[in-house]
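Escalated from tier 1: GSF holo job.
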Amino acid sequence: MKLIMTPTSPYARKVRIVLAEKRIEYEQVIDSPWDANSHVPDFNPLGMVPVLVLDDDHTLFDSRVIVEYLDTVSPVSQLIPKDSRQRLAVRRWEALADGISDAAAAIFVERKRPESQQSHEWIVRQDQKVFRGLEAMSEELGEKNWCTGEFFNLSDIAVGCALGYLDLRFPEIEWRKAHPVLARLADKLSQKPSFKDTVPPAS
Ligand code: GSF
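Tier 2 regenerated the structure:
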């Protein structure tokens, strides 16, 4: 299978970490949807990465669908619990973490526009989502070892990718100082080879 991705995408990073944790072999295809001659739209009509291309050329998107599929492909390291209540908790964490990445990416894209065309209100609105999202993650993690309790799973991967994306795009957001419990989780995750091997390059 092939993963169409960019090295800086927090959603692609989430998929890459799942692939690594589950020991699934795959081919990386780097293709930025922002390039004028990108082939991403040929695989995803929404023109977004990541896209997983299966060996029969069937395509999967978005990252949430991809990780749900990958968790069924290999029995190694189950990352989404079978129990429905626990499963919902993991998916809600993923929605919160991905939502923070969505808001951060929206600010990043807005700031690429000419200054005169940037909407200050829009940026403030997205910034508030990031701020409230960090507060909520910190509150809900509390003193637990992992996001949903005793075991590492997809919720921790999604949170780690969102926090890593903030470090990449908004180093001025000092989330570690404001949320020491999130810093502790991020430090624990950063020791994992799957995280070490996918740190987004500054760009
Ligand atoms: C979000 C993917 C996304 O925004 C998912 O896979 O979870 N809900 C989707 N991807 C960005 C690149 S990056 O910010 O990760 C993307 O492909 N943007 C191109 C566009 O046209 O928005």
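The chain has two domains: 2-73, 84-192.
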